[in-house]
Amino acid sequence: MYEKIVEAAKRIEGIAHKTPVLTSTLLNELTGNQIFLKCENFQRMGAFKFRGAYNTISSLSQEEKNKGVIAYSSGNHAMATALTCKILDIPATVVMPEDAPQVKTAAVRDYGATIVTYNRGTESREEIAQGLIDEFGYTLIRPFDAESIIAGQGTVAKELIEEVGELDYLLVPCGGGGLLSGCAISAKHLLPESKVIGVEPAVSDDATRSFRAGKLQSIENPNSIADGLNSPSLGKITFPFIKENVDDFITVSEEEIKAAMYFLWTRLKIVVEPSGAVALAAYKKLPVKGKRMGVVLSGGNVDVRKAGDLFKDIRD
To answer: Rounded to whole angstroms, how far apart are CA atoms 264 and 276?
Structure first.
């Protein structure tokens, strides 16, 4: 699978941003480790999802491109699909929940995609998408459970490791597992001795449960503030990759996510969304010192008008 990540890196080169790696003396002092933050909040459309979407959609046949594509997502995958289709001049339709963050739905519209909304409590986005596929012949761009998506996301860790070198640990947020499985494949190929840790919200811990049980577990309507990680379960493709390449999982509370997000905003002066702060929120739960640790900040698409509500109970 790593060779597909290498191919994806070539395909997205010059299109996707090679995102910066930031360090913080204060963060290193607080953790007792050397932390390298891979800032996918600076990626095009503001999240790592662009990598997988572009790798997948640019590889379609001309016939598939002409008919158009469809995706379902609460936000970042929707934005990535819409932006990719704008770049490649491909018609795009996106199925999004009615309560998706306004900043994300606005971006999808600005990129020119057609939005179809649904009630996540009573309707199935998969069924809605399939109905449109049956009617119009669209190609489905899955949010995480496809090898081309995983390969694109795996370029995150490939870039990080090629820039900073040896890592003892790599912390990666996990929703459906596309980013985690891709990054884990890259890490284990390039640094076989490194430990890859998946991180997810405690209220949306289906991946942790699946990893511990050795079989897929699911959660009905997970509802973390980290909306990008509210997938009900890992995928049939991502789960085997995770079982093979991930060393452990850590869960973090909603309060810990807010605190990590607040730290990144106030001390590093970078805007991340709750999902983007999840991996950093786990650093206190790794009882290690003197290690080199990579942390993936997965995205920055947050409605800044509502960010104050997340921070109002935090005390310095």
So the answer is: 10
Q: What is the DSSP string of 250-287?
A: EEE-HHHHHHHHHHHHHTS-----HHHHHHHHTGGGS-
First CA to last CA across the chain, in angstroms? 44
- Structure token digits, residue 316: 């310095």
The burial of 114, by beta-carbon neighbours within 10 Å (0-12 exposed, 13-18 middle, 19 or more buried), is given as middle
Residue 295 and residue 252: Cα distance in Å, rounded?
A: 15
Q: In what order do the strands lie in the sheet with 21-22?
A: 21-22, 34-39, 292-297, 169-173, 195-201, 248-252
- Distance CA(30)–CA(36), nearest Å, equals 14
Contact in structure between 241 and 185 (CB atoms under 8 Å)? yes
For residue 313, what is the enclosing H or E element?
A: none
Phi, psi of 35 (to 5 degrees): -105, 135
CA distance 54 to 71: 13
* Placement of tokens 């405690």 in the chain: 202
Give the alpha-carbon dihedral of 239, 244, 248, 253, to 10 degrees.
-20
pLDDT digits (tens, 9 = 90+) for 258-301: 999 999 999 999 999 999 999 999 998 999 999 999 999 999 99
Q: What stretch of H or E contains 188?
A: helix 178-190
Reported as a single tens digit per residue, the pLDDT across 32-81 is: 999 999 999 999 999 999 999 999 999 999 999 999 999 998 789 999 99
Catalytic residues: 49, 298
Q: In what order do the strands lie in the sheet with 92-97?
A: 114-118, 92-97, 69-72, 139-140
Query: Could you identify the residue written with the tokens 């990666």?
Result: 172
Structure tokens at 70: 């469809």
What are the structure tokens assigned to 123, written together?
């309707």
Element (H, E) at 59: none
Put simply, whether the predicted model's pTM sits higher than 0.85 gets the answer yes
Residue with tokens 């480790």: 33
